[in-house]
Amino acid sequence: MKGKPYWLLTLIFLVMILIGTLSPRDIIVTPDLGSDKNYHFLAFALLVMPLTFQNLKNAYWLLPVAVVFGAIIELLQPHLGRHGELNDLYADAFGALIGVILVALVKLAKTS
Questions:
Q1: Rounded CA gap, 18 and 12, in Å?
Q2: How many domains would you assign to the chain?
Q3: Owning domain of residue 10
Q4: In sequence order, what are the residues at sequence separation of 6 or more whose Cβ sits closer than 8 angstroms to the Cβ of residue 48?
Q5: Confidence of residue 57 (pLDDT cuts 50, 70, 90)
Q6: CA-CA distance, 6 to 13, in Å (whole number)?
Q7: Contact 45/101 with Cβ under 8 angstroms?
Q8: Long-range contacts made by residues 27-36, C-beta under 8 angstroms, separation at least 24?
Q9: What is the pTM of this model?
């Protein structure tokens, strides 16, 4: 049971990202956060946080997996009536990196 909540939360975020990025745009209602890059940034920050919080060493494999996941989404989008954009991938990668850094800072503050 120790690691299950972290994996479950990560899976929930993963499914939400898939629905949000691969569904037709007109069926998803979202609040206005400005650029869609903000959604990408936030989603990928949240994606990496639970497993990074479980163990900081997870970031070593989690960051590359998150970036590859973002790239796969961008490659699939044109085949699903969406637009794949390199800038979305940059936002995904930066969000994942910042998510890991924030968790690391929180964990560092807890140990001080």
A1: 10
A2: 1
A3: 4-111
A4: 59, 62, 63, 66, 96, 99, 100, 103
A5: very high
A6: 11
A7: no
A8: 36/88
A9: 0.89
